[in-house]
Amino acid sequence: MAVDYAVIVLYLAGMLAMGWWGMRRAKSKSEFLVAGRRLGPAMYSGTMAAIVLGGASTIGGVGLGYQYGLSGAWMVFTIGLGLLALSIFFSARIARLKVYTVSEMLDLRYGGSAGIISGVVMWAYTLMLAVTSTIAYATIFDVLFGMDRTLSIVLGGVIVVAYSTLGGMWSITLTDMVQFVVKTIGVLLLLLPIAVVKAGGFAEMRDRLPDDYFAPLGIGGQTVFTYVLIYSFGMLIGQDIWQRVFTARGDKVARLGGTAAGTYCLVYAVAGAVIGTAAKVLYPHLGSPDDAFATIVKDALPMGVRGLVLAAALSAVMSTSSGALIACATVANNDIWARVKGFLAARGATPGGQDTGQDPADGRGEEAAGGSDEVRDNRLFILLMGVAVIVIAIALNNVVEALTLAYNVLVGGLLVPILGGLLWKRGNATGALASVAVGGLTVIGLMATLGVLANEPIYYGLLASLVTYVAVSLASKPTDPAVLTAWRARLAGEAAPDEAGEEPAPSSAAHGV
Questions:
Q1: Which of 23, 201, 398, 434 has its CB 3.0 to 4.6 Å from that of 167, i.e. a possible disulfide?
Q2: Exposure of 14 by Cβ count < 10 A (0-12 exposed, 13-18 middle, 19+ buried)?
Q3: Considering only CA atoms, which of 254, 202, 287, 295 is closest in space to residue 37?
């Protein structure tokens, strides 16, 4: 195992080195939170694929393949479908908004009165996503070094928090690109063919396993439908995903790069299910399906290769964890803490009492005032959220329930007002707020009654949210025409802030481009 250990240690050291390099690059809020909105097609597609394909997609995807066969691909497949839908239909408009968070988009669309509640919901979702990703370190470090669960979580969590805090989105982008390459080589080019060969090829796999393992809907039609509601729709509205869209250099990059990343996810989904099916042939009596990935890596691969594949699994976990962490910190600072400070301070002015001259919905008044170091503040919030994530991950045991809870509340509460704002001009702030409240409470109430893993909470939560949004919007005053005019201008890229990726100068005058 010495060679495997060396591969992993070099990989982890490289992640920290990239964090240090990113710190030198991130000099403004835009650079720190959205990589200066300057990513080209290759970097954008690679990092987007990296963040959506985490530990659940890798370890969990192989586990579903072990349990259900090829139909186990559906969970990751629906993630890819959601990313394709986002990229093709919405990403260009999202990128042109030039905001930092989903809640800022809602403020722009509805006139500044929908952001605080959506910010709290999005913060809870990104926090739990970061927690569940962090817990996955325990599985990998247990296979590598035989570490106990707590030490594994602390080790992996500290590394991710360190490079994320140092360089923000630039560090995360660089590490995600490396993680994308390692993941592609480790899982698709090495583990997949080796697993199939070890299992005797597809013909032997068909002979050794029941026919259900090769049925397209062997996992169950209702399960597939639920995956679509949770994961496909979750891809459309998650802060962690939108924050990557904000890094695109332009509309074309967001659309084409995201389409490439979504297509990659579809391939990755099938690969994980095939690996899991091969593992079922080789190890038919494992105690848990989630043990399939670690078992086949440990027993079927030669040294060196084994270390690279484990590094691929580690990279999958780290990419999702770091993306969720910076998203959580961005929402906590920009959507929650900034609003609390604004409420405590004089309305329409910064804490120092000077009017910024900025649109409050733009979310940039703090920085324009020049009264605080936004990079320092966001770095501090990443550190604080990172510590909280590690502590919660140590205390939490049921990863599946935590992740399901997060996605259910996110989709049930925010899907309708976000897509409604993009697609239906009659929707208004009153309808959006009512939709968030009714949808979120319906989901939470039904999960408490029927169980977190039940399908009904998301079904009825979405229905209640949609009915409430339409009914309340139609029964109340339409959105102010001035707000809609400003919204349409931002969607068209006509009234966006500075395109150069730099923040407005303290005088509130934008830099020339």
A1: 23
A2: middle
A3: 254
Neighbours of 422 (CB within 10 A): 18
- pLDDT exceeds cutoff 80 at 430: yes
Residues 6+ apart with CB under 8 A from 240: 51, 126, 129, 320, 323, 324, 327
Confidence of residue 346 (pLDDT cuts 50, 70, 90): low
Residue 492 exposed, middle or buried by CB count within 10 Å (0-12, 13-18, 19+): exposed
Contact by Cβ (8 Å): 440, 409: yes
pLDDT of residue 144: 65
CA nearest to 469, candidates 102, 77, 8, 114:
114
Exposed (0-12), middle (13-18) or buried (19+): which is 477, by Cβ within 10 Å?
exposed
β-pair partners for 39: 248
Q: Roughly what angle, to the nearest 10 degrees, separates helices 374-395 and 305-330?
A: 120
Average pLDDT over every residue of 143-165 = 83
As a whole number of angstroms, the distance between CA 236 and CA 45 comes to 16
Rounded CA separation 388/157 (Å):
10
As a whole number of angstroms, the distance between CA 73 and CA 273 comes to 5
Tell me how far apart the alpha carbons of residues 503 and 29 are, in angstroms, rounded to a whole number. Answer: 7
Q: Give the count of beta carbons closer than 10 Å to the beta carbon of residue 353.
A: 10
Residues 6+ apart with CB under 8 A from 295: 279, 283, 286
Structure token digits, residue 283: 């190890």
Spatial neighbors of 418 by CB under 8 A, at least 6 apart, are 102, 105, 106, 236, 237
CA angle 4, 54, 191 (to 5 degrees): 45
Residues pairing with 248 in the sheet: 39
Nearest residue to 275 (alpha-carbon basis) of 294, 252, 250: 294
Amino acid (one-letter) located at 42: A
Whether 397 shows a pLDDT value over 90: the answer reads no
Q: What's the CA gap between 231 and 120, in Å, rounded?
A: 20
pLDDT level of residue 228 (50, 70, 90 thresholds): very high
- Provide the sign of the torsion angle of the four alpha carbons 225, 439, 416, 92, taken in this order: negative
Q: Which amino acid is at 398?
A: N
Place of tokens 């990935």: 293
> How far apart are alpha carbons 283 and 290 in whole angstroms?
12
pLDDT attached to residue 44: 94
Quickly count: other Cβ atoms within 10 Å of residue 396's Cβ.
16
